[in-house]
Fold this sequence. Notes:
Elements: H1 2-20, E1 31-34, H2 48-57, E2 62-64, H3 65-91, H4 95-102
Antiparallel strand pairs: 1-2
Helix pairs in contact: 1-2, 1-3
Amino acid sequence: LLAGGLAGYGVHELAEYSEETNVDLGWLGEQAYNLGIPEGSPLHHKGVAGSVLAVMFGYTVEAEWIRVIVHVAYLVIALPMVIWVYRKRTDTKPIHQKREATHDHSSPETPSQNHSDFG
Length: 119
């Protein structure tokens, strides 16, 4: 989520630079949304709570289409990959558990094999 926000913010900065250099991005440079939160509000991306959300998730009160597209595209590609990698790691058992599962536990234990302290 953090990387998606960084990608979106980076594209936002490029969009601002393109405005300064008179490069027209067309509809990609137009405003996609405006939440209408005033700048003095704690929920504004420069406010107390909003700044934490902005750093962690790329939250902003208003964004251009190019920023929204890059942020969403990054999340659509990266999140399933992260979930797939971590799910794959949690599905595999450690080697010592695999060895224990392959041993035959159907034969009765001899007294020397019984490790119980309760007799």
